[in-house]
Amino acid sequence: MNHALVKDVAADRMPDLLRKMPKAELHIHIEGSLEPELIFALAERNKVSIPYANVEELRSAYAFSNLQSFLDIYYAGASVLLKEQDFYDMAHAYFVKAAQDNVVHAELFFDPQTHTARGVGMDVVVKGLHRACIDAQKEFGISASLILCFLRHLSEEAAFETLEEAMPWRDKIVGIGLDSGELGNPPEKFARVFARCRELGFHLVAHAGEEGPPAYIWTALDVLKVERIDHGVQSIKDPALLERLAKDRIALTVCPLSNLKLCVFPDLASHNLRQLLDAGLAVTVNSDDPAYFGGYMNDNFTQIFAATGMTARHAYTLARNSFEASFIDAADKQACIDRLDQVFESFV
Question: What residues are annotated to the active site?
């Protein structure tokens, strides 16, 4: 379907269209989908002590002033994950929500260093998550794959060690990413390990330009040679960068509610997603760490559309971008786009 052929939809019907359209999620930290209820259930199951009296007290702690204040509580929540079944249960709970939101493909970020540092083996993490991905296809018809992320506040040497630990499971990992505290940890810090990952045939992505400057996006592209930029909203400050991103069709995996919760923008009406999209960039919408940031995929879509007045044409473009930027093969991409076209053609 040509984008120009997308029919106009009244504003009050947009939420229904956004819910119904199939979509891919390309920026989801699976540890960030760990809801307070599951944190407490796993803490009890594994006899782990956590510094909150109950679910309500934990949820009320989800008031963040910046990325680091979120990361502190995020790592505390991950402490309850000890066994393969814990990782399976966490991912399965995410897929239940994803299915409700008509996510038909998901590429899950996971942070093995968060777990191996606590004595949890790489095999425990990967086997649990991979088993949930297999079952997501059987149970919900969602295709899913794993992207291993290095923690950028740690050393490149530690990243190399993590890569080595992951090698027995390389057939279960589609890509390599870079996340955690951005400021003071530029992409080029990981130039050698990303070069090695590229030699090994992994897809490459990196968080850049969330809180960090546009310069971080340039080096993620030119030094790490990534295929997608996670976040990337600071690119708006650099016209030459915008031109490059549009020309090369480098996807930005934007996370509106995350940006709001971490004070990247003062409110959703100020968010630049529509600006980036109208500038011809391959923008996508994603949920990032939905348990902490107040919304899964459809929450992100409906809230950013309500705040910015985007149209059905924007919705189609965002969903189509998500499939085109995914790491599935060409035939599967086309099948997803065909499903998307059917929804838009039949929506009256």
Answer: 210
